[in-house]
TrEMBL record:
It is a multi-pass membrane protein. Residues 57-237 form the ABC transmembrane type-1 domain. GO terms for cellular component: plasma membrane. This is ABC transporter permease subunit. InterPro entries: MetI-like (IPR000515), MetI-like_sf (IPR035906). Belongs to the binding-protein-dependent transport system permease family.
Length: 253
């Protein structure tokens, strides 16, 4: 508990200083709310529209919880295939890198043309956003197994599958979870972008409405919700990692 608090208090203090400075700057310089609302303006707007915002938040959360596991699974499968079949890595790894050079906002209209306005194009978009960090991090972890243990297992007559299941896969878990945590933060934003291409509810849809009406305070409410959802997903994955990877050495700091 004490070590957890030592990790939490520095960012908490930084956030408090940031919000306090923001509030003071808006008040001292008399900044109009439609240009930059203060934190109290944002909280007030959230309280005034909490019911409607909650409906949009649940829609985005639902979309995220569908797309994020699929993207994670796709990334893990790709990493395992490229690791176990070296020729596929040489053939497809460059294409994997190139796939990330196409902006998701540019792919969105194409997905609508190909798959319509239903759930499928949104899930595909979130998957494309989420799979890459998982795939790259897992491949890196699989390639960084303990060399001494690897040689020992080979001398003991262990086969490739035994080496993979007993050494490479377990030792790659910290890297895998690092990729999953990054993917979790991308998943919410991917869901929001997916909602921009066609939806009748969700934080992305809510943002489009408020942008058209120049409701800057409501735009900030949406941004805060996106950040909070990302942090909650990140924290859940971090707790899952702590529970599963118990052998991982802890830092003293």
């Amino acid at each position: 508990m004490r070590s957890t608090w030592k990790q939490l208090w520095p960012p908490l203090v930084a956030v408090i200083f940031l919000l306090t400075g923001w509030q003071l700057a808006v008040s001292l310089f008399h900044v109009e709310a439609w240009i930059l609302p203060s934190p109290t303006d944002i909280i007030r707007e959230f309280n005034a529209n909490a019911t409607g915002i909650w409906v949009h938040t649940l829609a985005t959360l639902r979309l995220t919880l569908i797309g994020f596991p699929i993207g994670t699974a796709v990334g893990l499968i790709i990493a395992l295939l490229l690791h176990l079949l070296p020729w596929t890595r040489r053939a497809f790894y460059p294409l994997l890198i190139l796939s990330q050079n196409v902006p998701s906002i540019a792919l969105a209209p194409l997905l609508v043309i190909w798959f319509g306005f239903g759930l499928l194009p949104k899930i595909i978009l979130i998957t494309l956003v989420c799979f890459f960090p998982v795939a790259v991090a897992t491949m890196s972890g699989l390639a960084q197994s303990d060399g001494i243990m690897l040689n020992y297992m080979k001398m003991a007559g262990a086969g490739k599958w035994q080496i993979f299941t007993k050494l490479e896969l377990p030792s790659s878990l910290p890297s895998l979870f690092s990729g999953v945590k990054i993917s979790a933060t991308y998943a919410v934003m991917g869901a929001v972008v997916a909602e921009w291409i066609g939806a009748d509810k969700g934080i992305g849809y809510y943002m489009l409405l408020q942008k058209s009406a120049y409701h800057t305070d409501r735009m900030f409410v949406a941004i805060v919700i996106i950040v909070l959802l990302s942090l909650v997903l990140f924290a859940i994955i971090a707790l899952l990692e702590k529970w599963l990877v118990r052998w991982k050495p802890r830092r003293n700091s």
